[in-house]
Amino acid sequence: MLKTTRRFFSNRSTALGAVILAIFVLAAIFAPLIAPYSPSKMAIPHRLQAPSLEHVFGTDEFGRDVFSRTIFASRISLMVSGGVVIFSTVLGVLLGLFAGYFRRLDAPLSRLLDAMMSFPDILLAIALVAALGPSLTNVVIALGITYAPRLARVVRGSTLLLRELPYIEAAKTMGLPTWQILGRHVLLNLASPILVQSSFTFASAMLAEASLSFLGVGVSADSPTWGTMLSMGREYMNASPWLMYFPGLAIVFAVLSLQLLGDGLRDLVDPRLAKEV
Prior knowledge:
- By secondary structure, the protein is an all-alpha fold.
- The protein is 74% helix and 0% strand.
- Helix 1 crosses helix 12 and helix 4 packs across helix 10.
- Keywords: Cell membrane, Membrane, Transmembrane, Transmembrane helix, Transport.
């Protein structure tokens, strides 16, 4: 375990991604202690002030502290992205296992996955949020449904290979229940690709949540999110560019850290890919 951890963090890019993500996680956890002001406190006389010692990231059109709002927005981004990863992983694994293991379900489930993947992710997410209604829970459900087919395809392909292996046939001959075969002999062998795909889903979900909030169909506008901050700041982009700089940079660094960690996990699972790259 220790050797694996060392090899994982021996890559500088992976270590950098871990450090950046840890900063965001700690900022989200200790937001009330780090943020100097309330993210919703308005101070109209101090609206659109440039970054200074009093307001490190400046203030927005309502006089709210941009630094405080950026810190609190990390909570929502991480919460939504984490929820999407959990939801999409459970749904995707179930669909992939059923499609790959049960021959009768393979064709209808594969066509369903193909149909879902034929739509651009953001358009499918917008349609689902519009149908369910804009809220944090519905955004998680919509994005979870959107990204589940990606993992389901990975799980299905691997399950198709595993179900033909001798030890699976031996387990069937011994009379083991189907759920036990799927859980103990199939799912455990899929842990590595599932973990890698989930890390990339985390990054995609964070970017998608920001996109939905920017378009006004995501989390409630009353909650500070990076996408909402960008959407409101674009009206003052020329006169007060800091309103878009800081939430935009937060999105860039957060997504970058997750991508770097995902690359590290992929290289750890299959070192041949690292050599090819």
